[in-house]
Write a structure and sequence with these properties.
Elements lengths: L22 E9 L9 E5 L11 E2 L5 E6 L3 E8 L6 E7 L8 E5 L18 H15 L3 H14 L4 H13 L3 H14 L4 H13 L3 H10 L8 H13 L3 H14 L4 H20 L3 H21 L4 H18 L2
Parallel strand pairs: 1-7
Antiparallel strand pairs: 1-4, 2-3, 2-5, 5-6
Helix pairs in contact: 1-2, 2-3, 3-4, 4-5, 5-6, 7-8, 7-9, 8-9, 9-10, 9-11, 10-11
């Protein structure tokens, strides 16, 4: 699904180069003690991008990493490091400007548990072999092969929650969204506290246009998981892509309330008011157009105030100049 922000016909003067810009993503990897994890491998993948669109990258001595992606949208981010549990997640990458730094905390592999008595496993050897093969295919980003192995394991253990979860992730990568959604809903019903499943299920619902269901799921996500305004901004962009400006503004307001010093929230809010102003002009509603242009300038000016060195600040300054010209011609 195309996820880049749709502001076509927003302004004849809107920056055309943005449509072709690469999406930059960056982050820092830490352990549970807050210390940087050096040499962690970061894998990024998107079912809509070529399989070899981006090579894995590694964290430096400060735990930091960065990558340029060929497109925005929903990207899987997997992080592996020796001695740590692999982190798997999904986030929305903005195709416009730079996405905020993503902080990932890796948990250490727990020490082995010593079992003094013999435990007889009831798990079929075939299921174990299929899961192990599927996990290897996941690491190699071979999603069709991974799904095939997990399907075999699921047939043997239809009630196994973890198998359902990895099978759903494989289906999502293969753009089999309905099947992924059904499995994720089953897992969520059994493990409502599973934050990774909750975030992915919310994302799939929104991608599939099930906005009301997605909004309900979004309310179940703990506030601390949305402390980074990036998640709220990405939801706002999804609603804007579907023409729901007011709902998009609602989530941008939440992003600003959560982190009032984050300039990107004001940048997108300024673009929405700018779009609304141009729509007012098309309807000959000049008073409303002027009000929305003033709100656009107020938000764009905030971008420059909070992040004068950012790429968004330069774009905001250009847009404000054009707004002034347009207002003089009203």
């Amino acid at each position: 699904m195309k996820r880049s922000i749709i502001i076509a016909a927003l302004l004849t003067f809107c920056i055309a180069s943005l449509a072709h810009a690469q999406a930059r993503v960056q982050g820092v990897i830490k352990n549970e003690e807050g210390k940087p994890v050096v040499g962690a491998t970061v894998f990024l993948s998107n079912p809509a991008a070529p399989q070899d669109a981006i090579a894995p990258t590694t964290s430096n001595k400060s735990g930091k990493w960065a990558a340029l992606l060929p497109m925005g949208g929903s990207w899987d981010i997997d992080v592996e490091a020796e001695g740590y549990i692999t982190s798997r997640g999904t986030m929305q990458i903005s195709a416009v400007g730079r996405s905020p730094a993503l902080e990932i905390v890796l948990k250490k592999v727990p020490p082995p548990v010593v079992v003094e008595e013999t435990v007889v496993s009831t798990v079929p050897d075939e299921a174990v072999a299929a899961v192990e093969a599927g996990e290897q295919f996941m690491k190699d980003r071979k999603w069709a092969e991974a799904a095939s192995e997990f399907e075999a394991a699921h047939a043997l253990l239809p009630d196994h929650v973890q198998i359902k979860q990895v099978l759903a992730q494989s289906y999502y990568q293969l753009d089999r969204k309905e099947e992924a959604m059904a499995l994720l809903q089953e897992v969520h019903a059994e493990q409502p506290e599973n934050l990774g499943v909750l975030l992915l299920l919310t994302n799939v619902l929104l991608e599939e246009g099930k906005l009301e269901e997605g909004k309900v799921m979004l309310t179940k996500i703990p506030d601390e998981a949305l402390a980074d305004p990036t998640a709220l901004i990405n939801v706002a962009i999804l609603f804007l892509n579907r023409g729901d400006q007011q709902e998009s503004l609602n989530y941008l307001d939440k992003a600003i309330a959560a982190s009032p010093e984050f300039p990107e929230s004001y940048y997108y809010r300024g673009l929405i008011y700018l779009q609304m102003g141009n729509m007012n002009i098309g309807k000959k509603e000049m008073a409303s157009a002027k009000k929305n242009f003033e709100l656009a300038k107020e938000n764009l000016n905030k971008v420059i105030e909070l992040g004068p060195e950012t790429a968004e600040a330069g774009e905001a300054a250009e847009l404000m100049e054009q707004i002034d010209i347009q207002m003089k011609n009203m």
